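Posting for a labmate who doesn't have an account.
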Amino acid sequence: MLKYATKQRKMLLSLLCQNADKPLSATDISAALAPEGISKSAVYRNLSALEKEGKVQRLTVGGSNKVYYRYTGAKECEKHLHLSCSVCGQTFHMDVPATNSLVNEVMNESDFKVDSANTVLYGVCKQCRK
Protein backbone atom coordinates (compact mmCIF):
# COMPACT_ATOMS: atom_id res chain seq x y z
CA MET A 1 0.00 0.00 0.00
CA LEU A 2 1.36 3.42 -0.98
CA LYS A 3 2.09 5.72 1.93
CA TYR A 4 1.69 9.42 1.28
CA ALA A 5 4.35 11.79 2.49
CA THR A 6 1.98 13.96 4.50
CA LYS A 7 3.10 17.02 6.45
CA GLN A 8 2.48 15.12 9.70
CA ARG A 9 4.52 12.12 8.59
CA LYS A 10 7.43 14.27 7.38
CA MET A 11 7.53 16.25 10.62
CA LEU A 12 7.28 13.11 12.74
CA LEU A 13 10.10 11.43 10.81
CA SER A 14 12.22 14.56 11.11
CA LEU A 15 11.71 14.67 14.88
CA LEU A 16 12.50 10.96 15.24
CA CYS A 17 15.59 11.28 13.05
CA GLN A 18 16.89 14.22 15.11
CA ASN A 19 16.43 12.10 18.24
CA ALA A 20 17.43 8.72 16.83
CA ASP A 21 19.20 7.59 20.01
CA LYS A 22 16.56 8.88 22.44
CA PRO A 23 13.48 6.96 23.43
CA LEU A 24 10.47 9.20 22.85
CA SER A 25 6.98 8.48 24.09
CA ALA A 26 3.93 9.32 22.00
CA THR A 27 3.23 12.03 24.57
CA ASP A 28 6.73 13.49 24.11
CA ILE A 29 6.28 13.44 20.35
CA SER A 30 2.79 14.96 20.53
CA ALA A 31 4.04 17.77 22.78
CA ALA A 32 6.93 18.52 20.41
CA LEU A 33 4.66 18.56 17.33
CA ALA A 34 1.62 20.29 18.85
CA PRO A 35 2.92 23.80 18.03
CA GLU A 36 2.95 22.70 14.39
CA GLY A 37 -0.75 21.82 14.58
CA ILE A 38 -0.25 18.05 14.54
CA SER A 39 -2.84 16.20 16.60
CA LYS A 40 -2.18 13.40 19.04
CA SER A 41 -4.28 11.04 16.89
CA ALA A 42 -2.10 11.84 13.85
CA VAL A 43 0.99 11.03 15.92
CA TYR A 44 -0.43 7.66 17.05
CA ARG A 45 -1.64 6.81 13.55
CA ASN A 46 1.74 7.60 11.99
CA LEU A 47 3.70 5.81 14.72
CA SER A 48 1.59 2.71 14.15
CA ALA A 49 2.21 2.84 10.39
CA LEU A 50 5.95 3.46 10.85
CA GLU A 51 6.18 0.53 13.27
CA LYS A 52 4.50 -1.77 10.74
CA GLU A 53 6.95 -0.53 8.09
CA GLY A 54 9.90 -1.30 10.40
CA LYS A 55 11.00 2.33 10.62
CA VAL A 56 10.36 2.67 14.34
CA GLN A 57 10.78 0.20 17.14
CA ARG A 58 8.48 0.10 20.16
CA LEU A 59 10.30 -0.19 23.51
CA THR A 60 9.46 -0.33 27.19
CA VAL A 61 11.88 0.81 29.88
CA GLY A 62 12.53 -0.89 33.18
CA GLY A 63 9.41 -3.04 33.12
CA SER A 64 7.11 -0.02 33.14
CA ASN A 65 3.93 0.21 31.10
CA LYS A 66 5.16 3.33 29.33
CA VAL A 67 5.88 2.79 25.64
CA TYR A 68 8.71 4.56 23.85
CA TYR A 69 9.64 4.68 20.19
CA ARG A 70 13.08 4.59 18.60
CA TYR A 71 13.70 5.51 14.98
CA THR A 72 15.57 2.75 13.15
CA GLY A 73 15.78 4.40 9.74
CA ALA A 74 18.69 6.75 10.51
CA LYS A 75 21.70 6.17 8.27
CA GLU A 76 24.05 6.13 11.27
CA CYS A 77 22.06 3.22 12.73
CA GLU A 78 22.32 0.91 9.72
CA LYS A 79 25.73 -0.53 10.52
CA HIS A 80 25.62 -0.48 14.30
CA LEU A 81 24.28 -2.82 16.89
CA HIS A 82 22.71 -0.89 19.73
CA LEU A 83 22.91 -0.84 23.50
CA SER A 84 19.80 0.28 25.35
CA CYS A 85 19.65 1.16 29.02
CA SER A 86 16.74 -0.60 30.68
CA VAL A 87 16.61 2.13 33.37
CA CYS A 88 16.70 5.43 31.45
CA GLY A 89 15.97 4.12 27.94
CA GLN A 90 18.93 5.87 26.30
CA THR A 91 20.23 4.02 23.23
CA PHE A 92 23.87 3.97 22.18
CA HIS A 93 25.65 2.78 19.04
CA MET A 94 28.06 -0.08 19.61
CA ASP A 95 31.19 1.09 17.86
CA VAL A 96 33.50 -1.64 19.03
CA PRO A 97 35.30 -3.75 16.40
CA ALA A 98 34.03 -6.92 18.07
CA THR A 99 30.49 -6.17 16.86
CA ASN A 100 31.55 -6.55 13.23
CA SER A 101 33.23 -9.83 14.11
CA LEU A 102 30.11 -11.03 15.89
CA VAL A 103 27.81 -10.12 12.99
CA ASN A 104 30.17 -11.74 10.46
CA GLU A 105 30.53 -14.87 12.59
CA VAL A 106 26.75 -15.24 12.87
CA MET A 107 26.44 -14.88 9.09
CA ASN A 108 29.22 -17.36 8.35
CA GLU A 109 28.19 -20.00 10.90
CA SER A 110 24.42 -19.74 10.67
CA ASP A 111 23.85 -18.26 7.22
CA PHE A 112 21.72 -15.68 9.01
CA LYS A 113 21.82 -11.97 8.10
CA VAL A 114 21.65 -9.77 11.19
CA ASP A 115 19.58 -6.58 10.91
CA SER A 116 21.97 -4.28 12.78
CA ALA A 117 19.63 -1.27 12.83
CA ASN A 118 17.06 -3.31 14.77
CA THR A 119 19.42 -5.30 16.98
CA VAL A 120 19.46 -4.06 20.57
CA LEU A 121 21.31 -5.42 23.59
CA TYR A 122 19.74 -4.39 26.90
CA GLY A 123 21.56 -3.55 30.09
CA VAL A 124 22.26 -0.59 32.40
CA CYS A 125 24.33 2.41 31.26
CA LYS A 126 27.21 3.93 33.21
CA GLN A 127 25.13 6.90 34.44
CA CYS A 128 22.34 4.71 35.81
CA ARG A 129 24.79 2.38 37.57
CA LYS A 130 26.12 5.28 39.68
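Reply:
Got it, the C-alpha coordinates are right above this. The helical segments are 7-18, 26-33, 40-52, 97-110, 126-129.
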